[in-house]
Write a sequence for this structure.
C-alpha cells in the first residue's frame, strides 16, 4: 500500500463536501463564502484534471450568475413536468425508474451502518445526489481519521463501507446521471459540475487513482 498523504486526504474530503453543496439550489453565498476558491485549492492537491474542472466551474458560476443557474437547476433536477436528470439513485438503479425503491432502502441501510443521520432540515429523498455525496464525505473523513490516529480497525471499516457504497450504490449511477446532466444542461456551470463529480467519484471508486 502506498504511503498515506494527509494533505491529499484532507483535500479529498473537502472537495466531496463542496460537490455535495453544489447540488443544492445555487446561492449567492457560494461566492460570498469563496467556496469555489476552496474547491479549486482542494482539487489542485488531488489531480490536474480535477483542478481544471474546478477552475472552469468557478469561472462559469461567476459568468452565469445565480438567477440564470436557478433556471437550469430547475430544468435539470426539478421539472416542472419531469426532471431531465433526476438526482435520485433509485431512478437510475431501478428497472421501473421509481422513487423510494429497493435501492433506496439499501442505501438507507448503509447510512445506518455508517452512523449517518439525515439532517431534519433536509427535505429530499435519502438517495438524492447531495445526500450520497455527504455520506461519501463522511466515509473519506473516517478513512483519514483512521490513518492519522493509527487505528487499523477503524480504517478498515471505513474503507470497506466506502467500497460497498460505491460498488453497490453511487458508483453504479453516477455515470448515467452525470451524462444526463451534461446532455441536458444549458449552462456551462452544470456541465462542468457533472464532469467534476463523475471524475471524482470514479477516482474514489478506483482507490483514489485517476480513472
Amino acid at each position: 500500500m502506498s504511503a498515506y498523504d494527509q494533505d491529499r486526504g484532507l483535500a479529498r474530503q473537502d472537495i466531496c463536501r463542496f460537490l455535495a453543496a453544489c447540488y443544492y439550489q445555487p446561492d449567492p453565498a457560494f461566492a460570498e463564502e469563496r467556496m469555489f476558491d476552496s474547491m479549486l485549492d482542494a482539487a489542485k492537491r488531488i489531480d490536474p484534471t480535477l483542478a481544471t474542472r474546478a477552475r472552469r466551474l468557478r469561472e462559469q458560476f461567476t459568468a452565469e450568475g445565480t438567477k440564470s443557474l436557478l433556471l437550469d437547476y430547475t430544468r435539470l433536477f426539478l421539472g416542472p413536468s419531469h426532471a431531465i436528470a433526476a438526482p435520485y439513485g433509485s431512478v437510475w438503479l431501478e428497472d421501473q425508474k421509481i422513487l423510494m425503491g429497493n435501492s433506496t432502502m439499501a442505501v438507507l441501510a448503509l447510512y445506518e451502518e455508517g452512523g449517518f443521520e439525515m439532517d431534519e432540515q433536509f427535505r429530499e429523498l435519502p438517495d438524492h445526489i447531495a445526500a450520497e455525496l455527504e455520506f461519501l464525505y463522511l466515509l473519506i473523513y473516517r478513512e483519514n481519521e483512521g490513518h492519522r490516529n493509527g487505528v487499523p480497525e477503524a480504517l478498515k471499516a471505513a474503507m470497506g463501507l466506502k467500497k460497498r457504497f460505491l460498488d453497490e450504490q453511487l458508483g453504479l449511477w453516477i455515470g448515467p446521471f452525470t451524462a444526463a446532466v451534461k446532455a441536458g444542461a444549458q449552462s456551462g456551470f452544470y456541465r462542468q459540475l457533472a464532469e467534476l463529480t463523475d471524475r471524482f467519484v470514479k477516482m474514489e471508486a478506483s482507490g483514489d487513482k485517476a480513472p
About this structure: The two ends are 18 Å apart (CA to CA). The first helix runs from residue 6 to 22. The chain has a mean pLDDT of 91. Residues 6-205 form a domain with the TorD-like fold (CATH 1.10.3480.10).
